[in-house]
Amino acid sequence: MTSFKPKDISTAKLHGYLLSAVAPRPIAFASTIDANGNPNLSPFSFFNVFSANPPIMIFSPARRVRDNTTKHTLENAENTKEVVINVVNYDIVQQMSLSSTEYAAGVNEFEKAGLTMLKSDIVKPFRVAESPVQFECKVNNIVKLGTEGGAGNLIICEVVKLHINDEVLNENGSIDQEKLDLVSRAGGSYYSRAKAGFFEIPKPLSTLGIGVDALPENIRNSNILTGNDLGLLGNVETLPTKAEIKAYVNMHDNITLNDIEKHKKAQNLLSFGDVESAWKVLLS
């Protein structure tokens, strides 16, 4: 058995061990607003529910290991004392992943991820309309666990209103776990679908994806492509060039498809993770 004390290894390595061993973890898809009213949306897997009376949830936006900076969500929660925690199901997992890209302050991750802002009833941050369960929360306290990179910040939230999509309820008014189809986080690029097990999503950390809002209108409003498909397409830094598209078309016997056929073919390619070819089909 390999054994060591936390201080004997780097914070980054320890961080990796912790996230891989303590898994899967539920995801708090946290919506906040900054002091100027700009929306922000980001997922956090240091999260759980800790009390029913009062209803308390805690999530932790940790200080970044690589440069010891803090996240916009933490700054917003400190300034406004409000947050909406949305749950993540499989239907929005790719869009959730795209929203974790470190866009600049003031960039609206709802728009980048192609998700719908839904006005809350009590707090100012918006809800994610596509999320099957949404919790409007007041921030009761923030406990800072340290000042170095990797240190957590426990945002202690009290639920003041919750919203549940009727489609995930059974005949008794209880949540049906099969219908809810939650997704959780594990180590590295791994996620776990509650009713189907592990799958991988490449981390969108090294580049800034163009975002769903930058997709051509006919693709963004497709009747074929799902939100997850659009999330995959939006998580590219650049689109293929005309020369690359022409070469792809020539390699595939000069394919000529209408929009519906293109979208279906692209969706099939996306199901195998071939985002580059999907884009070439869509833009051919």
SSE blueprint and pairings:
Layout: H1 11-21, E1 28-33, E2 39-44, E3 47-52, E4 55-59, H2 72-80, E5 82-86, H3 93-99, H4 109-113, E6 117-118, E7 127-128, E8 133-144, E9 153-164, H5 177-180, E10 183-185, E11 190-193, E12 197-200, H6 217-220, H7 227-234, H8 242-251, H9 259-271, H10 275-282
Antiparallel strand pairs: 1-2, 1-5, 3-4, 4-9, 5-8, 6-7, 8-9, 10-11, 11-12
Helix pairs in contact: 3-7, 9-10
Low-confidence stretches: none
* Helix count, DSSP H or I runs of 4 or more residues: 10
Alpha-beta classification: alpha+beta
Shape: globular
Strand order across the biggest sheet?
Answer: 2-1-5-8-9-4-3
The SSE order reads HEEEEHEHHEEEEHEEEHHHHH
Care to give the gist of this entry?
This protein is an alpha+beta fold. The protein has helices at residues 11-21, 72-80, 93-99, 109-113, 177-180, 217-220, 227-234, 242-251, 259-271, 275-282; strands spanning 28-33, 39-44, 47-52, 55-59, 82-86, 117-118, 127-128, 133-144, 153-164, 183-185, 190-193, 197-200.
How would you portray this structure in words?
The longest helix has 13 residues, at 259-271. The N and C termini lie far apart (54 Å). Helix content is 28%, strand content 24%. The protein has 284 residues and is of the alpha+beta class. Strand 6 and strand 7 (127-128) form a beta hairpin. A seven-stranded antiparallel β-sheet has the order 2-1-5-8-9-4-3. It has a three-stranded antiparallel β-sheet with strand order 10-11-12, with no helix packed on it. Strands 6-7 form a two-stranded antiparallel sheet.
